[in-house]
Amino acid sequence: MNMWRRIELVCGIGCGVLGPLPFFLRHGAYTFELFRSSSGNLTDALLLFFLPGLLVAVGSYFHAVRTRTFGLILLLVGGIFLTFMMLVHFFSGAVFYLFGVPGGLAILLQGLLALIAMISVIVGRVPASQQRSYGKG
User: Fold this and answer.
1) Could you give the dihedral angle defined by the CA atoms of residues 114, 27, 43 and 106, in that order, rounded to the nearest 10 degrees?
2) DSSP 28
3) Structure pTM?
4) Cα Rg for the chain, rounded, in angstroms?
5) How far does CA 17 lie from the centroid of its chain?
6) How far are the Cα atoms of 23, 25, 32, 45, 67 from residue 29, in angstroms, in the given order?
7) How is 45-90 classified by DSSP, letter by letter?
8) What is the C-alpha separation between 121 and 75, in angstroms, rounded?
9) Tell me, what DSSP letter sits at residue 137?
10) Rounded Cα–Cα distance for residues 52 and 114 (Å)
11) CA 93, CA 89: separation in Å to the nearest integer?
12) pLDDT tens by residue, 64-121
């Protein structure tokens, strides 16, 4: 595993870890009570932050460690969504108002890590002509 795949893996795992954090940093111990009282909040949290972060984490693992192509697809689907959400939150300025400073930083960092993971895939890609061919005399 080269340096670019390690960067991809670390950034992907970071995205998965940061997924549920914004809601917990905003509401603390009352987060579970909030989710129990309104299922819409739980759906928003899962669809906007946790699921894309999980896609990036699983995709980066399967692409970097297992060298599977579907891992790259998962990484790109989750990463493009998180990068788009990071840009929307950053340029709207409402991320710190809605989630507070720690939650806002967690959202922006999750998008930044997804962007770094996607860039490391593009930069670290080795053309087929330069790969070593094993077993050929």
Assistant:
1) 0
2) G
3) 0.83
4) 17
5) 9
6) 10, 9, 7, 16, 39
7) HIIIIIHHHHHHHHHHHHHHTS--HHHHHHHHHHHHHHHHHHHHHH
8) 9
9) -
10) 9
11) 6
12) 999 899 999 999 999 999 999 999 989 988 888 888 888 889 989 999 999 999 999 9
What Cα–Cα distance (Å) separates residue 136 from each residue in 10, 19, 132, 133?
34, 45, 10, 6
Whether the CB-CB separation of 14 and 113 falls below 8 Å is answered with yes
> What pLDDT does residue 137 have?
44
Q: Whose structure tokens read 């995205």?
A: 15
Mean per-residue pLDDT for 113-133? 79
Distance CA 53, CA 2 (A): 23
φ, ψ dihedrals at 96, nearest 5°? -75, -30
Task: Report the SS3 class of residue 38.
Answer: coil
Distance CA 33, CA 94 (A): 24
- Domain range list for the chain: 3-124
10 exposed, middle or buried (CB, 10 Å; 0-12, 13-18, 19+)? Answer: middle
Reported as a single tens digit per residue, the pLDDT across 13-54 is 999 999 888 777 776 666 666 667 776 767 777 788 889 999
Q: How far is CA 112 from the centre of its chain?
A: 8
